Amino acid sequence: MRVKVCGVTRPADARLSARLGAWAVGMIFVPNTPRFLTAARARRVRAAIPKGVKAVGVFRRPAREALLRAIRELRLDAVQVYGAVPSGLRVPAIVVAEVRSTRARRPRLGPLDYALVEPARSDADRRAGRGPSAGTRLAAWKVAAAWGRRGVRVLLAGGLTPDNAAAAARTARPFALDVSSGVELRAGAKDETLLRAFFDAVRAAAPGRGGKR
Predict the structure, then answer these.
(1) Residue 134 per-residue DSSP state
(2) Could you say which DSSP state residue 198 is in?
(3) Band of residue 135 on the pLDDT scale cut at 50, 70, 90
(4) Residue whose C-alpha is closest to residue 28's, from 10, 42, 49
(5) If we measure between CA atoms, which residue out of 99, 3, 90 comes closest to residue 53?
(6) What is the 8-class DSSP label of residue 119?
(7) Residues 189/168, Cβ–Cβ less than 8 Å
(8) Fewest 10 Å CB contacts: which of 12, 92, 142, 199?
């Protein structure tokens, strides 16, 4: 089972995530959110992501030229997009589906793309860094499982912690789990103890399923 550590704001956290076996490290470029990175800080975090670990930029409704510039300047391996995905990016897109119920519609995906399933939250909750409700979280797990059975490479996010990572992995069986606030003591600063516990929980839930793609 793979892990994407998102909302990384410090080079040390990028290096630690890689040492623990992260498949990807996410950097957030959504203004007015707790883990937003300026271009200068993003370059420092990107430099700490080693070869073999995917560097992912996270954007909300980005302009195409701004997205292409970020891909080029930060050498991004993939982009995670809330909203419409611009064409011609030349890197895989992680297309976000914010789920409110098990009737969620699957997004349109290219052959190299991924779907990121996460419970829907209000804009106020997102700005404050608050997690989803238990009901929407369970709906997201069920949607992730259903799409995965249809061959979609699904990343599951939203309210994941060391305490529920194993249950999420067993219930949803996603391509990867995506964790951010669940391994922090404060926004943007990953806690080593929580991060290690998260990886341990994921490995315990899916023994023998390691590997990077």
Answers:
(1) H
(2) H
(3) confident
(4) 42
(5) 3
(6) E
(7) no
(8) 12
Nearest to 13 by CA among 195, 205, 206: 195
Q: What is the largest CA-CA distance in the chain?
A: 42
- pTM for the model: 0.92
Structural tokens at position 123: 């804009």
- Contact status, residue 173 vs residue 145, Cβ threshold 8 Å: yes
According to DSSP, the residues that pair with 178 across neighbouring strands are: 4, 157
Residues with Cβ within 8 Å of 138's Cβ and at least 6 positions away in sequence, in order, are: none
Neighbours of 52 (CB within 10 A): 9
- What are the CA-CA distances from residue 97 to residues 104, 115, 155, 157 (Å)? 8, 7, 10, 10
DSSP-derived secondary structure for 11-79? HHHHHHHHHHT-SEEEEE--TTSTTB--HHHHHHHHHTS-TTSEEEEEEES--HHHHHHHHHHHT-SEE
Per residue in 18-74, pLDDT (tens digit) is 999 999 999 999 999 999 999 999 999 999 999 999 999 999 999 999 999 999 999
Amino acid at position 103, single letter: R
- Which two tokens mark 1? 């089972």
Name the burial class of residue 156, with classes exposed (0-12), middle (13-18) and buried (19+) by CB atoms within 10 angstroms of its CB.
Answer: buried
List, in order of start, the domains of the chain with CATH numbers.
2-205 (3.20.20.70)
